[in-house]
Amino acid sequence: MTTRTPLMVGNWKMNLDWTQAQALVEELGDLLKGHDSSSVEVAVLPPFVDLRTVQVVVDAGKLPIAYGAQDISQHESGAYTGEISGAMLTALGCTFVAVGHSERRQYHGEDETITNAKVKAALAAGLTPILCVGEPLEERKAGNQVEYTLAQLKGGLQGLSPEEAAKVVVAYEPVWAIGTGEVATPEDAQEVCGAIRETLGSEFSAEVADSVRVLYGGSVKSSNVAEIMAKPDVDGALVGGASLKADEFAKIVEGAR
Ligand code: 13P
């Protein structure tokens, strides 16, 4: 029996300005009143410019909501115009940071080398990287989903010690299921999430495989979350569109139990 605490993460992507972020976190806080984070952990990943607002609302209300960023610079500090460092995120009370989201890989040219450097930058700053992996449609059609995703996983975790790897969260997000309404079947999710866990075991150790949380992402809603969460190697969800509505995201959290 696993001791992994389920983790439900809302990735807001490039949505909501700071006033809208404030309203959403306040509403979510009301809906999650009395929520026990030790049974299901809840986190949101707002745009950078909303993080200070989220911090103030969460701190003031002592809300059971962790938060983090959608990206991090691979560099520590200095002349990197437009970049945000791990230390800046830690100073804002962030716990998590998404790394290697397929939208970063696709639209911002982030390859395995950059993703790996960002995972290391996150760990060095004391943040938990949520390493996003997953195949595009053509790889799925060719039956290469496991092989493709595991190559991204190994690339992202390259050079980590078992102690470091144990701190990472992995999110399996098949690209064809993101924002399309086409959710992977629970069996599809389990196939790849199970393979990810096996690889964590062979690359690092059985302890790492047992402790790392593997999330599923791609068109998760309150109506499909329970069947996906029922799979043994799925420890949570990375939710895009459905995390922008407080009541729907609260229902998704409820579905994780
Ligand atoms: P959707 O839930 O909107 O499909 O997005 C998934 C995702 O990319 C989360 O990171």
Topology:
Elements: E1 7-11, H1 18-31, E2 41-45, H2 51-61, E3 66-69, H3 86-91, E4 96-99, H4 102-107, H5 112-124, E5 128-133, H6 137-141, H7 145-157, H8 162-165, E6 169-172, H9 186-203, H10 206-211, E7 214-217, H11 225-229, E8 236-239, H12 246-254
Parallel strand pairs: 1-2, 1-8, 2-3, 3-4, 4-5, 5-6, 6-7, 7-8
Helix pairs in contact: 1-2, 1-12, 5-7, 7-9
The structure holds 1,3-dihydroxyacetonephosphate.
List keywords for this structure.
257 residues, alpha/beta, eight-stranded parallel barrel, 14% strand, binds 1,3-dihydroxyacetonephosphate
Report the count of strand segments.
8
Q: What is the CA-CA span between the terminal residues?
A: 15 Å
Strand adjacency order, main sheet: 1-2-3-4-5-6-7-8
- Helix fraction by DSSP (H/I, runs of at least 4): 40-55%
Beta-strand proportion: 5-15%
Radius of gyration: 17 Å
Unreliable sequence segments: none
Order of helices and strands: EHEHEHEHHEHHHEHHEHEH
The main sheet comes to: 8 strands, parallel, barrel
> SS-based structural class?
alpha/beta
Question: Which small compounds were modeled alongside the protein?
Answer: 1,3-dihydroxyacetonephosphate
